[in-house]
Each structure stands twice: as structure tokens, then as C-alpha cells.
Amino acid sequence: MTRIFHTQLNLKSLIKISATINFIGGLVFGVLIFIIALFGEPTIVDLISVIATPAVSVVNGVMMALVAYPFYKRWCAKIKGQKVSGFFVEVSSDGT
Questions:
Q1: What is the C-alpha separation between 30 and 91, in angstroms, rounded?
Q2: If 81 and its partner were Cys, which of 6, 56, 74, 77 is the partner (CB 3.0–4.6 Å)?
Q3: Is 6 helix (H, G, I), strand (E, B) or coil?
Q4: What is the C-alpha R_g of the chain?
Q5: Model confidence over 27-41: pLDDT tens digits?
């Protein structure tokens, strides 16, 4: 049975999720840059792009979460939290 919950992330959780998603996106994009560079003449700029893209994506994700959080918080308060469903495990406040 699927259970549905209403949730609202705090700023720290929103930053973690945003940074993780952006890191993975940057990693995929960096690999694509590397593959495209293999068909041409790879330069040092291509190598720097492959390495820097995930890091820049994380910074972008953190900044976007910081900017978006007040709007997200207001939106969740208005609709009584965002609806999520799936597998959930309750943990204590110390993380265990």
C-alpha cells in the first residue's frame, strides 16, 4: 500500500537535494563534453570543463536553493506541504 505524506523540507535538506541533483547533472554533462572532445582535438580547456562542470553545478544548485527557499516555504505553507509518496523510514533526531 502506498502511503502519501505532506512534507516541507527545511533549508538544509533542500540544499542537499539540489546540490546532489545538480552534481549528477554536471557529471553527466561533463562526460558528454569528454565524449564530444574525443571526436575532435581535445584541449586543456576540454579537460578543465570536464573537471569543473560538476563543481560549478553544485555551486549553482546551492545558490538556486538559497534563492528559491523563501518561495518554496511560502508555497508549502499555502498548500499545507507538498505531497510525496513512496518508501519512508522514520529516524531519530541524531540520524540513527
A1: 35
A2: 6
A3: strand
A4: 18
A5: 999 888 888 888 888
Q: 56, exposed or middle or buried, with CB in 10 Å at 0-12, 13-18, 19+?
A: middle
82 has which bridge partners?
Answer: 7
**Grid coordinates belonging to 22:** 545538480
Q: Which amino acid is at 80?
A: K
* pTM beyond 0.85, yes or no: no
Task: Tell me the domain boundaries of the chain.
Answer: 3-86
Instruction: Choose among 6, 20, 11: nearest CA to 69.
Output: 11
